[in-house]
Each structure stands twice: as C-alpha cells, then as structure tokens.
Queue: 3 jobs
Job 1
Amino acid sequence: MPVISTPVGRGVNAERNLGEPSTLNQTKDHKHLPLAETMLRAQKETGTSVIRQARDMLALRRGEGKLSAEEYLGNRLFDPGFSMEDKRRFLGIQAKVIVDRLCNPSFKGRAAVRDKIIFAAMMAELGFPVPKPLGFVHPTRSSFIATDLRDREALLGFLRALDGPVFGKPVDSRWSLGAASLDGYRSDSDSVILLGGEEIGAETFADQVMGFADKGYLFQERLVPHPEVARLAGPAIGTIRLLTGNLEGERELLDCAWKIVAGGNVADNFWRDGNMLGQIDPETGTVMRVASGLAHESRTHEEHPDTGEALPGFTIPFWKEAVALVLQAATVLPDLRLIGWDIAVTPDGPVIVEANTLPAFNLHQLASGTGIMKGRFEAFVTACKQPTT
C-alpha cells in the first residue's frame, strides 16, 4: 500500500480535495527522535552514560562532521564499539552542505541537475539511457520532450488514455515528494490504478497533481526492475546510489549504496517506513549489509521482509555497466565534481533516473554502519581542498 498523507492544497483546484486522503506526499514524514528518552535508553542498554553521550555530542558538533544530537543518536554512536576516531568519520547534514560547496564551488551546473525536464532532455539528447518522458503538467512552460498538459482537463485526458504504467513526480522535488506510480486507468470506475492495486478516482488524483502544477509535474515511463532484482525486492524500482568524483578529468566511484523498497512504498527514499539501505562492495556489486531504522529501531536484515529472499550476498546485475555509465555521464557535468547518481537496474541494463547535488551521505553511513569520511571519499574531499591551478 502507498504511503498516505493529508494533502496541503497549494495549487489549482487544491480546494476540491480538502479533507480527502492524498496519494501524493507533500511533506516528508520525518520522525524526530526524543533526545532525552533515547539517551536514557542508550545508557541503560549500552552502559554509555548520558554525560558521556552529551560530551561526545558537543565534540562531534564542533568537529568537521558537524553532527547534531539527533544524528549522533540516529547512527547509534553511543555504542561502545565506536572509537572517537570512528565517530569523527560520520558527516551530518551541515557538513554535507560544507562538503558540497567545497567540491562543487561553481553553481553553473546545478540547474541542469535540479530541473528534471532539463536533465532528462539533456541526457537523452546525449544518448544516455533515461526514462522516456510522456506528459508534462504546467500552465505555460513547454517541455519539448513530452505532451504538454496545460490544465486539469488536459491532465484528465492524459490519465484516461493511459494504457500502461507510468511514474509521476514534480520537476523540482526532493526525497520523492509528490511521486506516484500508476499501473494504468480503469474506465468503468473512472480511476487510476496505483502500484499494488489500490484505485483512486481520476478526478481526485488530477486535483492532487494540480497542486504541484505551479512548478511542473512530469509523467514518464515506469521502469521495470531486472528480474533478479524483482525476485529479491518486489516490483518497485529501488535505485542504486553511486557517488562519483571528478577532479581534473579523473573520474572515480567514491561510494555506493542500494535503496531497497519494502512495505509497498511508492519510492525508495529511506524516510518512508519499511525501506532499507544496502551496503555494496564497489568492486563486485555484491550486497554486504542491509539496514533499516534509526537509533534503537535500527536493525540489520538477512532477508527481504516482503519476499523472504536473502539480501547479503546478492550481486547487483549489470554492476560494471552501471559504474561505467555514471563515470561517463559525469563527463558532461564538469562543473559538478561531486554527484550522487540514482540508477535503476532494468532488464536491458542500467538507466539514469536522477543526478543529485547535495547527495545524502547518511545513506551510505546507515547502509554500512560506518562514517563516510574514509578511503576514496576522504581522499577526494582532501583533494578538493587544494587550490586549482
């Protein structure tokens, strides 16, 4: 079942649906950790005193990782198994911004990545595999790569003509907010069918999409996972996050993780309850560790909760091709030296879904249970600090 949230009407016809459940998440369902309660529980379960935790939090907040108290707890850094050196390798959100500005000092390349229409058109024109654009909802802007849907009636016509699956998302969203995965349209009930079989009235769904129309909403072909991936993790696409560095024309894979969909979620973002993160061996593409949850809710998984299939030991299909794809794609964005790529592994090979500036380092940290500031990534960031010649 998809995640359900209460809509926040902010666009054309949004008032039609006040009080109705929304299929499109407009806000991130972030669950803040109760700090005092979590610290007391950590003290009881691990023996790390509240005073020691507070001292660690202060030191790590002041350090290069800029960890907040919540990030310290979420990553379970109260565990006695972590040395202070280990803890200092974790980066918080504030440090992520600092690293991004350090490694991507030019703002010229950001627009091409942040706007999904520009990015899809550019990459397709250059011959890179991307999902095919099908429809674009905006009152005035033209996409040039999809059918332009200017108003609610045009959108309804598009939905009622669906003869197969599509995936929709706002062109400017992050964290998959506003995303929808549709199996198609059912004429006898005038409804769209969501991935998983739930139906929602076409007019109700159109109203919810129009809430994003002021910035633009893109419908594109819905990718199908590779059969081995589908057998393991179900029919929804869970992308692999590949973090690339590009300095002086030398490109390398810095880190990688698998965003694993579970619990019937529409997208693979970790904030959605049930989703998991997999640590991947960068050389072989083999899953090494799978984790979910934060702080005391964190756990590792040997099997996928929906399919019962073993997770660690699984090798991502087309791994070498996926790595080669992002290293090649990085050459067309030379102003962005650090990029987080979301790659779907399909029956025909890897497909570029998105590229991200400000990539979420905690995806890699939660997947591996270790800080990202080590190895290739640490060496790359250190090199970015050197003055250019």
Job 2
Amino acid sequence: MEKEGASIVITHQIIDGKQSEYENWLDEIGPLCRNATGHLDWQIIRPIPTLTSTYTIIIRFDSIEHLKGWINSNERHRLIEKVGPLLDQGDNYFIRSGLDFLFTPLETNTKVPARWKQYLTTWSAIFPLSAFIPLIILPILRKLGIPSYHLIDSLFISGTIVLLMVYFVMPYYTKLIKKWLYK
C-alpha cells in the first residue's frame, strides 16, 4: 500500500437555525472518524456568526486508501444521510494526496496535472533554489556563530527552500506555466 498521505476538505452549508443540530452531528461523527484506520488529524473551521453558514472540515489520513475507506464506509454513509436535512447544498468535498496541494488550481472543475508534469515543475523550481540558497544561508549561519555541522546546515537550507516553494515560488510559477501544466 502506497503511503503518501491524503487530505479531504469538506464544506457543509447549514440551513439557518440548524447549527446546534449540526454541532451535535459533528460530536457524533467526529469520534468515529478519528478512530478510522490511518486517521491523522481533524480540523473544523466554523462559520462566522451572522456572516456565514459554511462549516469547513479538513481531515488528514496516512494514505489515500485509508481516506477512501473512511469516505466509503457504512458509518459515514449513514451519518451523511442523517445530516442531509440540515444541509443547504449537500455533502461537498474534494480529496488531495501527497503534494497535490501545490498544484491545486483555483477552479475546482480543473483536474490535477499529470504526475510527470508535477515532477518536472517541482524539480525545475527546486533546482535553482537548492543551488543558490546554501550560498545565502551558510554565510548567515557562520556569521551568527552557528558551527558548520551538516545536519544543522541541512535543516536551515531545506526549511528555507520549502518555505519559499510553498509560499512564494509555486503559487506564482504554476500560474506562469498553467497553460502547459493543466493541458
């Protein structure tokens, strides 16, 4: 079984006045989900009172297989039927595995690019960073008096590269090459 991790983002728009019933439903489904095989994390983003009525639930599993096992389980199907009358727009969700979140387009009807395109895009973004970031980070570490130790150097270099990739490089780079990437 391939273990690359997977996340599901669920949005539920609640019918006005049904929030407390929905909260009770969350108390019922939450423990079942957290006890499912491969469950890692469960987060709820609640609506802003008087402004929104959408709950967003983010659930992480250790593999896509375990996540799909939970999504397709009899317990979840039973509880989704139970909550149905409280939902304004049904049970909406999307699943992402591995590093697919780096390639998630803003338009939800657009598919994730082919793996080979993800590979080439990621590699072409990481290569220049891995070549030049050490030239910047290592002198800073030495100036701060941090001794030259491979693991410490690698920790700072890789942390900087990942930070740049996730927050700066990939959002703009994928927009720049989106015609090729999503073709």
Job 3
Amino acid sequence: MDTPKRSFPFGLILLGATATLVGVGLAVLVLSSSSAAQQSGLPILSPSTRALLREGAPAPEFTLKTLDGRPVALSDLRGKAALINFWASWCPPCLEETPALIAAYEELKRTNPNIEFIGIGTNDDRANLEKFAENNRIPYIIVEDPDGEVSDAYGVLGMPTTVFVDSSGVVRRIWNGAIKKEQVIEIMRGMR
C-alpha cells in the first residue's frame, strides 16, 4: 500500500511571511510616530493609550500655533468649557458644518464668556487654512496641526471630529462626523 505524499505547505509559509512583514511594518510605524512625538514635545501615546481616550478621561495637553504664529495650549483654557474641532479645508463634511459651528459659537459667547472653540486644521496647508478662515470669517481660535500629531494623540480616525472638554480639562463628549448648531449648543450648555 502506497503512502500518500504530503505536499509542502507553501500556502502556510506564505501566510506566515505576510504576517511577519505586516508586523514589522506596524512596529516601524509605531516607533517612527513615537520618535516624531518626542521631538515635538507632545506626550507619547501608544495605540492602546489612544483607545483609552473616552468621555470622562482627561483631555491630552497640546500646544499648537495659530495661523499668525501665536502658541495656544489647552491648559490656557482651564476654567472654560472648550469645543475642540478637528477639521481640514479639503474635507467636505468639515466645510458643511462650519456655519453651524460659527453660529453656535456666536450664540453661546453672547451669554457665556467662559467658553472657547478651537478649530484644529489637521494635515492641511497653512495657506488653505488661512483662506478658509478668512472667507468664512471664523471668529474662534484656529490652530494648525500640519502633521496630525495632536489628532493622533486624540485618536481622531476621521474628520470632522469634535471633542467637548469641561472647565477642568475632562472630555465630556466626543462627536464623530458633522455636527449641527443645536447639538453644539445643547452639549456646551450641559457642561460646566
């Protein structure tokens, strides 16, 4: 009786090699982003730490520059309720929600000076951000995050993303996607 020949498991070897290459690629990506964060002075957040950014957690500190070069830190806003909006001039839903953010900001600011909005232009060109802010007469703070380091620290996966931070620096709400004026006002009025 002949014993059946076993074929060499090339498919299994190919699968193992592919998994190894993917793992090495991810390791290189994590190490390079950690190195960039160290050089910028931002806190280093591993992917598992990013996943912990949730409502009720402290908002990661950041310092970014306004379009005219003035530094703005999240800690500068301690004592104020803050809306942090991650956006880009090339993002259609971001452009769509901008009038709602402007209207909400203006309405809220009339009745409560202890609020602030920060628009973080992410992975965008400064000239595009300046043109958009000027054309839309955006009244709130606009800063730039050209390499997306702060959006990475906040775990932003898509834009627009809006993070609501209370006066003590705690994340109270994370909103993914475009938001409406009424929603902004309701959330901001519910924060201290």
